[in-house]
Every structure is written in C-alpha cells, then in structure tokens.
Write a structure and sequence with these properties.
Layout (H helix, E strand, L loop, with lengths): L4 E2 L23 E4 L18 E4 L5 E6 L5 E8 L13 H8 L3 E2 L6 H6 L5 E6 L4 E8 L3 H13 L1 E2 L2 H20 L4 H12 L13 H6 L2 H11 L5 E7 L3 H11 L24 E7 L6 E7 L8 H12 L5 H9 L3 E10 L4 E9 L5 H17 L4 H17 L4 H15 L3 H12 L2 H11 L6 E7 L54 E5 L5 E6 L5 E8 L13 H8 L9 H10 L3 E6 L4 E8 L3 H13 L5 H18 L3 H14 L14 H4 L2 H11 L5 E7 L3 H12 L24 E5 L6 E8 L8 H12 L5 H8 L7 E4 L8 E8 L4 H17 L4 H18 L3 H13 L5 H11 L3 H11 L6 E6 L5 H7 L4 E4 L12
Parallel strand pairs: 1-7, 4-10, 11-15, 17-21, 22-26, 22-27
Antiparallel strand pairs: 2-3, 3-4, 5-8, 5-10, 6-9, 7-8, 12-14, 12-15, 13-14, 16-17, 18-20, 18-21, 19-20, 23-25, 23-26, 24-25
Helix pairs in contact: 1-4, 3-8, 9-12, 9-15, 10-11, 11-15, 16-22, 18-23, 24-27, 24-30, 25-26, 26-30, 27-29
C-alpha cells in the first residue's frame, strides 16, 4: 500500500513538472565523481555511497551508482518543494499534489505507475516532508528504461481531471482521519507540536493540512503548482542498481534532455524563525487520550549547521535504547512513563529537538515535565561519560550501516542530503562528523540550545465537559501565496491511444540469486542454518522455538510474550540496564519476541562485534533471571501499552476477530495478553514456559550475512554446544485452532471514534496446506498491494479509505484470512459490502491469466528484495525451518508462484474461503452506521467498547 503521506523528518519522495512536453537541444553534460572517503569507526567499515554526478543543460541534476550485486534498480526523483511551500489557505497541498502525481500523463493512462512497478515485481511510493517531495521506484533492472520514460512523462506532462482530483482529495482526508483523528496521539504530534514550536516559519503548519483547507483546493491550484515547482531545474534524479552506465545516460538524455527549463521564477520562501524570547507553555485536550502525554521542545539548528552532529549524538545519549537516560530514568527507575522518546528534527531553514513522555496510568503531566527537565539539566551541567559517548556513536554508526543495505536505502540517504545541503559529499562525511564529537561538544550544544528560557512545554490531556477538544490552528499565514504560482499554461491531456508514445520494452531479465543454505545440527539436536552473503559487514542470527501464545496456560494470555520480553531484562549475572548498555555499546540489535506459534531471540550486529553479540544472545536465552521486580515492570508497561492500543479501532478489531474465529481455543486469546490476564501472571508461569519450550532439541538457529558456515559452526558451538534439554518433555497445543464456529456480525461501539475499522474474517489454512500457493497468489490479487482489487475498489475508485488490503494469515494449524480497511464512520457499511463482494468474486468469477501474471510478479519481486538484506534473508530461511519445509523451497519459491493457474486459484478460494462463512467486525462510532448495517444484517451484535471482554470466547 502506498504511503503517499507527509513526513516531518525526510525519507523519500516522488513528483513531476511542466504541463507539456517542450523540446530544446540538450547541451553535453559533464560528469563529476562526488564520493568522499570518510574515516570509518574502529572495526566497522561504512563504505562511501559512490555516486557519480552530472547535470543536463535544463538544470536537472543526475546521480547514479552501479551495483552489480543486485538484480534490481531504483529510480528516484526528488523535488525541492515540500509542505513549507503550501500556499496560504492551502495547507496540505504539496502532499495532496504528491498523490495526484500517480495519475495520468500525456502518454500514460491513470494508474500506469502501479502497473509498471507492482506488475513486474517492483514497487513505487512517495513522501512529502517540510522541504521536499520524493518519488521512487524499485523494479527489476531490465525495466530501467521504462521507469526513466515514465518519470520524464510526469515531470513534463501531468494530466489531472476533476473526478481524479476529487477522489484523491477524499483519500487524503481519510488519511487525515486515520493518522490524526483515529490515532490517540495523532493530534499531538501531527498538529499541535509543530504549530507550537514554530512562530513564523511555515514549518508550523501540519504537512497533512486540514479537512477545511483540503476542501478549499481547486484543480486550477493543482495545475499552477505543477507548473511552478515540477521542473527539471528544481529536481534531482537518482539511479542506483544494476545497469549499463552508458545506456542509462543515453536514456536520460533521450527522455529528460528535451524538457525545457521554465523562465518563471519560483516563489521566495526563506522565512527566518526568530530566536526565543522566553519559555512558552501550552495545554491541549483531545478525545481518545488513554494516557496523558507531555512534550518539551527547543529550537536548534538547520540541517547544514556544524552543530547538527553534536546534537545528534546528544539525542542518542538522551533516548536511543533502553540504556538511554530518558528510558533509564522515566521508564525503568521512576516508572512514571509508559513510553519516552526524543527527536532531533533538522530541516533546511530551522530545526528543533523534542523530548516526550507518555505517562503511566495515574501519573501526572507535571511529573513527566519535571523528569524531562532534570535530564536536560544534567546534560547541561555535567559532561557525558566516555562510555555513554562511545555507546551513542556506535549505535549511530551501526544504524548508518543498516540504512545502506539496499540500493534504494543508499539512494534515499543521498537524496535527503542533497535536498538539505546541495552537497553529496556530506553523506560520506557524516560518520566522520559523528566520530569527531566530544563530550565537551555535547555539553556545549546542550548549554547553547537546551536552556530553560528557550524551552516550549506542552501537555496533552483527555477532553471532557470542562475542557473541550482543542482545535487545529486555521488560516495561518504563509510565505507563498496562490497569486505567486505560475500561470496554468496549456494543460496536458491524455492522448488518444493511437497517438501515444509506446512504452519501451523491458530488457533482458537479471534473475535474483538465492544463496546456498548450509544445514547441520549440534550434538544436542540444535539445528543450524547458514545463508552467507557478500556485501556490507553485517551479520544476523535468530534462534526460534516451536512455542508461542498458543501454548499460553488457560486464563493467562500473554505468558509467551512476557517470557520473551523478560529475556533482555536480566540474567544470572547481568541486570537489565547492564544488558541494554552492552547491546548499545556494540551498536547491535538484540532482543526477543513471540507470535502465535513461535518464539524467537535475535541478534544483528556489525561483523567485527558479532561474536560478542552472539555470546550475549546465548546468555539471555540460557540464563534468564525472571526477577520479580522486572516482571512487575513488564506487566505495568504491557498494561499501559494495551490501554493505548485498545483506543485504536484497528487494534480493537484485530483482537476481536481472533475471538470471533477461534472462540475459546488457544488461537482465540490475544497473544499479547489482556488487561485481566497480564496481572494474573507470576514468575512461576514465565519460568515454567521457558523451561518447557526454550530447549535446543526444538530450536533452529539461522545465521545470515557476512559469515561463513565454518565461522557460524564455531559460534554456534561456543554459544550453545553444551546446552542440554530439561528432563521433562515439552507439550504443545494439539489443535490450537479449535473447532469451526458459526459466523458472527459484531460491532464494537466506540463513540467519537475518528474512523471505523472494518474487517471481514474467514477461517483459513495452515502454512503446509496444498492450496497455500494458490491462496497466496489469490490473496495478492485481492488485497496485496496498491493495485490489488480491494484497494482499487475502495481507495482508487471511491476514495473511501487510505488503503485496503488482505492477509492469508496461514499458521501451523488453521489460520485466519482477513480483509480490511479503515474509513469514515458513515461509510462503514458501504466498505464492508465492497470487501465481501471482492472476496466472493474470487471463488465465483473466473480469473484470467492476465490477472495473475502481475500478481505473480509482485510476489516474486518482494521475495527477491527480501534476499537483499541480512534480516530479510534470515527471515525467509527461518520460516521454512519453522514449518518443517525443505531448504530447497528457497530456490523453488518463484517456480511455485509461477505454477499457480487461474483454475487452481478459483477452486482454492471456493474450497477454503467461501464468503458465506465470513464474519464481519466493525469498530467505530456505531450511531453513524448501525441502522444501515442492521438493515443488511439483522443478527448484528453491538458491544460497547467499555463492555468488551477479550478474555471471553463470547466477547461479553
């Protein structure tokens, strides 16, 4: 599903320019290599990005990097326009325009971009941030020419008509409802925080805008905005992956070279945010605030400022990981916050650092403010320790390494830096800049920027009769006005089919290569799988056990989840803070989790420190302390997390669905526990679960990344070779899906909900079912991707949701198939009808080969991209092992998908997913849709959210 959303800290984008093709002679372009060899941290090598630059005569900047180790290529176009450039009275306009860039051009009918990417196994997306809009595609490398043609098309000849404009505006309004109104803290972070931090800067307006100003926008505004900002001299084209450089440059010259540089100037937008004149405070109220929250903010610096590196390290010390100061103080020691965080937001023209705390049940905002102030004061008053400084740097360096695993990751890193600074070499210098930061630098920037008289304090509290909900600032002035936008000119129109330029044909396919997997066992029965790769020096390991929430004791849902969570919270000789510190000193990611059928422990670290990470991982698995005080902390944190999660329609719906499909069977209980079951769990429960199910004979250890089978064998033997099974045998749930239950129509009434969540659910299949692949391909056709049938019907055609999709949900026993969307409350019944109709059509209406070919490509392309990252590859291998499937299935995957026929798909859906067996769950403001739903489903059950009992098979 496409994001097509606004972000406040840059990531990726996509957009286009001029209204019609314009032709002029292209002058020769000059090529310059812009890589800079930086000083890598000791032991960890972060190679330079390695892009080459040239500029066309029309001003288009081009950066390219060849990587012959991938079968893919990414094409990205970054435009120097973002939400700060929204005209006055049109907040949210740059983001709305981003959505429209995926429609038609002079030679490409609507939705062609999705056909050119998803249908060949790739994907496309976009984002809008304060200073930029970026568009990107990742496709098999033989489709590069087609993507260059298409990107030049929408830069030069975007076509938008009134119906398309109205539909996409409705989609953006649903995105607003989902992200801002339906999320308990959406208003705080999406609306109130930026409008409070900034006084004059256009950054004070939310990038997503408002319903009112979105409604005020016109088609004429769209055409003028495109003419103003979507032009070659305001864009950066980035190509990275497997291609022939000379051929790529020739295609760029052919398609982008003729685009003309407009003579009209772009509106000036260089507002200087004033320095603070004293502290400021604000209090906001909103519906659906399960726990109070506080935010403190300080104006800092723009991205290109020399102090950015020191502020970045300061932020690492403050809130990165469980050894960070905010976590240790507010969450672990004082236990006054359920969640903490901080964010150094560096934009082109200004910047800020925010720190926040979502308070635990019963804690006041004042306690959170006092605690945040105390931690900031300590940064000003005392230098950070050498250990803290090194830890923060190592985390930043390791995360930089992880952020450069794929070609699109590397291109995105470059694009962001280019928009912010115009200097590609900054990306390669960032590691050296981080490494150069001293403790004195951290204290200096804390004293310079994080002072009391520069602070901005915000409280976020539940609205009530005495304190009505705070409203979004409207009619905010802006530096750009509609009058300053360029004239429309002659709008482009879609040419008749016979007059359109033909799409270039794909080149020769470059097939992805699946690595060989070494497979052996230790003497204690532990199975070890090794998928070695060449590339960045990263290694991943995951140790999986055949037990999850299905093995939770009756009435104690959440035991498996708490057991996994407690593994990192203390061993026989290490406390939770000591474990967190060791993980972060290594720049590693080490943790544990559980699902319905399995539990796993994982480690990801740079290759030079991976042995230490592996040793720590083994200690966590084999020697957990399960200390009573740590269990109490985890229980409190889990309960606060449940309070937040169960204020959101989507989460409520998913947990309700489990009970509707499975009732009192093990699969029916919420895997994370309930507000009643979590307090009932004691130390004996988690210790017994660990003793029963964490054993070598039932475990699989998967290594992936920069490691040889010999190295993996040595590490596995050192870590687990002398580990022995407990004397007693493990018992797993024999039939966790239970018996088939009758379908139900359930409404969970959440008065005032910002949206309604709609889910249709049917009892499905196991992962090893013979129809798994036909159902997988069918599910992708139905709801897997932006061009899926559900998304086409609900989002694209009708603008009723930000996105609709489906999941096959296969498990060890019978899984649950779901199809879902969130929509405005009054459209809930219409959306439920559309979902059920699309499910039914797959079992009753023949599917064509033309339908299936692109969906097969979607699955195979996603599989290929998973092979490019160490965690993605490790996950594929581990999943095969967990379901007792042969490792040969890794290489056979594409063939299995290609072999699915339309007849197999139709028969599988008719056999396993008949729509008359579907249950329907809707969570939202029932007053807005219950009469219409009852007219269609007289047997509907309405349960007030306050009465919902997830511990009960009946939900009552």
């Amino acid at each position: 599903m496409k994001l097509r959303l606004i972000t406040t800290a840059a990531v990726v984008a996509l957009l286009s320019s001029s209204p019609a093709w314009a032709y002029e002679a292209a002058a020769p372009a000059t090529a310059v290599t812009v890589t800079v060899a930086d000083t890598a941290p000791t032991g960890i090598e972060v190679p330079p990005l390695g892009f080459t630059r040239r500029t066309l005569a029309n001003g288009l900047e081009i950066y390219s990097a060849l990587d012959a180790n991938t079968s893919n290529v990414t094409v990205q176009v970054w435009y120097r326009v973002g939400s700060k450039d929204d005209p006055a009275g049109r907040s949210g306009f740059a983001h709305l325009f981003e959505h429209l860039m995926f429609k038609a051009t002079r030679n490409l009918p609507p939705e062609t971009f999705d056909r050119l990417t998803e249908d060949v196994g790739g994907f496309n997306n976009a984002f809008t941030a304060d200073d930029m809009t970026a568009y990107y595609e990742v496709v098999p490398a033989n489709h590069l020419q087609r993507m260059l043609f298409a990107e030049a098309e929408r830069m030069g000849s975007l076509v938008v008509d009134e119906p398309t404009f109205d539909s996409e505006r409705d989609v953006v309004k649903e995105e607003y409802r989902q992200r801002i109104l339906a999320s308990p803290y959406g208003r705080l972070f999406g609306l109130f925080t930026p409008q409070t931090i900034y006084l004059d800067s256009p950054y004070r307006r939310p990038g997503i805008g408002s319903i009112e100003e979105l409604d005020a926008a016109t088609l004429d505004d769209v055409l003028r905005f495109h003419q103003t900002y979507y032009r070659p001299d305001n864009a950066i084209l980035i190509v990275a992956g497997n291609f022939d450089p000379a051929q790529m440059n020739a295609w760029i010259d052919q398609y982008f070279g003729p685009l003309k540089r407009p003579t009209t100037p772009m509106p000036a937008n260089d507002v200087v945010e004033p320095e603070p004149t004293g502290p400021r405070e604000a209090t906001f109220y909103a519906p659906n605030v399960p726990l109070p929250a506080v935010v403190m903010a300080w104006p800092t610096v723009a991205y290109r400022d020399a102090d950015r590196a020191a502020l970045t390290v300061l932020d690492g010390v403050l809130s990165t990981g469980e050894s960070s100061r905010l976590y240790r103080s507010l969450v672990y020691d004082q236990q006054i916050a359920a969640q903490i965080g901080s964010n150094p937001d560096f934009a082109q023209q200004a910047g800020n650092l925010t720190a926040y705390a979502i308070m635990t049940q019963g804690q006041s905002p004042e306690a959170g403010i006092a605690a945040l102030k105390a931690e900031i004061a300590q940064l000003r008053d005392e230098p950070v320790s050498a250990a803290e400084l090194a830890e923060a740097k190592n985390e930043l360096v390791a995360n930089t390494l992880r952020g450069r695993e794929s070609v699109d990751d590397r291109a995105t890193t470059l694009g962001n830096v280019l928009i912010m600074t115009g200097d590609a070499s900054v990306a390669d210098r960032e590691i050296a800049d981080i490494q150069a930061v001293t403790a004195a630098d951290v204290q200096r920037v804390a004293r310079r920027y994080l002072t009391d008289d520069r602070s901005i304090t915000m409280r976020y509290l539940p609205a009530d009769d005495e304190h009505p909900a705070s409203v979004q600032n409207m009619n905010v002035d802006a530096p750009v006005t509609l009058a300053e936008l360029a004239p429309v000119g002659t709008p482009a129109t879609l040419l008749p089919a016979e007059q359109r330029l033909s799409l270039p044909q794909p080149g020769t396919e470059i097939a992805p290569v699946t690595p060989l997997v070494s497979d052996f066992r230790l003497s204690n029965g532990l199975r070890v799988l090794v998928a070695a790769t060449e590339g960045l020096p990263l290694v991943s390991a995951r140790l999986s056990f055949e037990a999850g929430s299905a093995e939770d004791p009756a009435g104690k849902a959440g035991v498996a989840a708490l057991t996994a969570a407690l593994l990192t919270q203390g061993t026989a000789d290490k406390s939770a803070p000591e474990i967190a510190t060791q993980i972060e000193q290594l720049g590693a990611s080490v943790g544990a989790g559980s699902g319905v059928d399995f539990s796993n422990v994982y480690a990801n670290a740079p290759a030079d420190v991976f042995p230490q990470a592996m040793a720590l991982m083994a200690d966590l698995v084999r020697n957990p302390a399960f200390a009573a005080e740590e269990l109490e902390r985890q229980q409190a944190q889990t309960l606060d997390g449940l309070r937040v999660a169960l204020s959101q329609p989507g989460t409520i719906a998913s947990q309700t669905v489990a009970r509707v499909i499975y009732g009192g069977a093990p699969y029916g209980a919420p895997s994370g526990g309930t507000v009643n079951s979590i307090p009932a769990i004691d130390r004996a429960d988690v210790a017994a679960f660990h003793r029963a199910y964490y054993r070598p004979s039932d475990a699989t250890l998967v290594f992936s990344g920069k490691i040889t089978p010999a190295e993996a064998r040595t590490l596995a033997q050192q870590a687990f070779g002398d580990w022995r099974n407990p004397a007693d045998a493990a018992a797993t749930a024999a039939h966790p899906a239970g018996t088939v239950l009758s379908p139900r129509i359930i409404v969970i009434d959440q008065p005032g909900a910002g949206q309604a969540a709609v889910v249709a659910a049917i009892r499905g299949v196991s992962r090893t079912d013979a129809d798994y692949f036909p159902l997988t391909v069918g599910n992708t056709l139905l709801g897997g991707g932006f061009s899926s049938r559900l998304n086409q019907e609900i989002r694209i055609k009708r603008g009723l949701s930000y996105g609709a999709g489906s999941s096959l949900g296969a498990r060890q026993d019978v899984g649950v198939f779901t199809a879902s969307a969130q929509t405005r409350n009054d459209a809930a019944v219409e959306v439920s009808d559309l979902i059920l109709a699309e499910i039914a059509s797959l079992a009753t209406t023949p599917t064509t080969e033309a339908d299936l070919a692109p969906r097969r490509a979607t699955l195979i392309g996603g599989f290929g991209r998973s092979l490019e990252t160490v965690d993605g590859l490790g996950g594929l291998v581990a999943n095969l092992a967990l379901y007792d499937l042969p490792m040969s299935e890794l290489a056979a995957y594409a063939g299995r998908v290609r072999a699915v026929t339309p007849e197999q798909l139709e028969a599988a859906f008719a056999r396993h997913l008949p729509v008359n067996e579907a249950s329907l769950v809707i969570v939202g403001d029932a007053a807005q849709f219950i009469d219409a739903l009852r007219a269609k489903h007289p047997d509907v059950e309405v349960i007030p959210l306050t009465d919902l009992n997830l511990d009960s098979a009946t939900l009552h």
